[in-house]
Amino acid sequence: MVRLLKYLNPYLGLLMLAIFLLFIQANADLALPDYLSRIVTNGIQLNGIEEVLPRALREQQFQKLTLFLNKEEQNQLLTLYEKVNPQSPNFEQLRSLYPISSETALYVLKSPLTEQQVQESLSFQKAFLTVFLIDQWQSGKLPPSNMLPSQGAELFQIPPGMDWSTVLSKIPLSTRQQIADRLYDRLSALGENVLRQNLSMAVRDEYLALGVNIPRLQSAYIQRTGLQMLGIAFLSALCTVTVGLLAARTAAGFSRDLRHLLYSKVLSFSSLEFDRFSAASLITRSTNDINQLQMLIMMMVRMVFYAPLIAIGGLIRAMSKDVSMVWTIGLAVITLVGVIFVAYQVSIKKFKLIQGLVDRLNAVARENLVGMMVIRAFNRQDYEEQRFDEVNLHLMKENLFVNRVFIVVMPFMMLIMNGVSLLIIGVGAQQVAQASLQVGDLMAFMQYAMQIVFSFMMISFMFMAFPRADVSAHRVADVLESEISITDPAQPLNLPKPVRGEIAFHNVSFRYPDAEEDVLHEIDFVAPPGTTTAILGTTGSGKSTILNLIPRFYDVTEGKITLDGVDIRQIPLHQLREQIAYVPQKSNLFSGDVENNLRFADEEADAEHLIEALKIAQAQDFVLGSEQGLKLEVSQGGTNLSGGQRQRLAIARALVKNAPIYIFDDSFSALDFKTDLALRKELKKRLANATVFIVSQRVASIKDADQILVLDQGRIVGKGTHAELMQSCEVYREIAISQLGVEVTA
Fold this sequence. Notes:
Layout: H1 12-45, E1 56-58, H2 59-66, H3 71-80, E2 81-84, H4 91-97, E3 106-109, H5 115-120, H6 122-138, H7 164-169, H8 173-189, H9 192-210, H10 214-267, H11 271-276, H12 279-304, H13 306-321, H14 326-370, H15 372-377, H16 381-433, H17 439-480, E4 503-510, E5 520-527, E6 532-537, H18 543-549, E7 558-563, E8 566-567, H19 573-578, E9 580-583, E10 592-593, H20 594-598, H21 607-616, H22 620-623, E11 633-634, H23 643-656, E12 661-665, H24 673-686, E13 691-695, H25 699-702, E14 707-712, E15 715-720, H26 722-728, H27 730-740
Parallel strand pairs: 6-13, 6-14, 9-12, 12-13
Antiparallel strand pairs: 1-3, 2-3, 4-5, 4-7, 7-8, 10-11, 14-15
Helix pairs in contact: 1-10, 1-13, 1-17, 2-6, 6-8, 6-9, 8-9, 10-12, 12-14, 12-17, 13-17, 14-16, 14-17, 16-17, 21-23, 26-27
């Protein structure tokens, strides 16, 4: 996959934006459990009370509070609270909030406490908590406690209903502060949660005394926090949708670029590269393999960046709730990673095999479709169906194996998730019972654990998809990074103008890659302009190979080929092939109509030129004689036309090019003798000044050529005219006699 990452460069902007949005989404998702914890702990358990000091105090409670403060602390307290009585300007507004204000003066916070003020108000919190606990003991709501120092034991001797502040005021300030410190330290030793609960209970008790509507306060807190949760959830959903769009755009653009690059690369392939990559494999690589990569990029953008943020952020937030239970998350993650690792090791080799089987399936299907008429003619439908089923069944078995691995992995993952939930509940319940953990924090911890485990599950999905996509990436990269064996020269030479079209072979030998010996040996001849060079020989003697060397479909192994005296390897490929009109053995036509196929040679050709080419190629009867004319439909590969009609259209297409060199590679084999004779007669007129090469198995088609090359096992065993070769070349004479019989003596 690393080999293809450079093709993501155009989409770095989209990726960076997606990562930024994923960061926002992760933070939003991580914040939601904390808000749930607040609703449960603060909203339900603590009646919606968050503050550590009440927003208002009765005058008598305020005076009790000052008993535990020195002069400096009392002055600081007066900077936070202001006294309110019926003569105060905002009295009416406060009376609606605190009904008790009509009976007693109040001390009200001037403004909500800041975080810094909360931290600096520790002495006030100690004093307020001490006043609350002593009130509870005196009223009998709490049993006597050993939390007081020995100097404060007389507090429990005060008769019920008597004001304890009078007794306490007679105790030295240092002793009163020791009492407050002792109470606060004892509660702190029980845990932050216990201390927080007692402070909230103290605030609630004061609010009740003030006549505050606690249920309304609680409901307002839950509604306010719930709305904040909804806002955060909406932000997360918005980020999710946007990231999905960015991921889709990135993945689709990436796959589009790869297909374009792959197609452009294949267009530059020489025959050597096509020998390495089969057509079925190239089709699979440009479709199935790139689709696998597209899905992987989609998953990567949405999961690979998001999952680590959730895992790390979730772990940090879970530790902030309770460090002692983090081991439960670690156990779940280790188990999950183990399952993922085993599944990865089992499936990686299978994915490589599956992609190869997809290639094989495409190859078999392509062979069957192309050779359907032959299969039917020999009644081999059952055999070919069996051959296809074997490959298909093999592919099915491998896919089933991989799917079974994933099917087993998913229940394991769910088991791990449910197991860690039960484990957290079991361990956390004990801490809740000991008041060292709030129920809301337990629920938040469980949600963070689920987020962490789920993030690793997302990573596991990536690991499951990655092996197959990685195989596909290597297959695509192999094509994109393959060395092109036939390229433009580093220092090109331009052809002299005008191009005459003289082709000369100078002791040319050629060997296919990885072959043990040459297929052409010391081929040497000259084809001047205005002449026809015919090539005849036994099957496999190298006739078509000679023609394939001229447009550089292959490069010579030894010797050289020149065009007008210039080595063709020094001519730019585009310029070289502009001079050649080529008609291959197999008449390849493209879907569309006749006009489109003819204009393949020259887009600017006018209709008269196209019609002239059709007439020379003897194609006017079935093209111009039809109602559609040049718009006659041509199906893919020309399958709606006969073999002879396809050959004639291919010849007409070459004639449209008006090139100085024409190559006919056994291009008359499907024509009847009458059409062949008429076509050769017209070609002789039309191509009188061109250099023409003809490969044919028919002696009658080439006996009028200016020179005939006779090949046998890759060597020229005869060269000359028909009459000369009949006298000097035994191989040619045997072929001619076998085809023409007594005509050779005429």
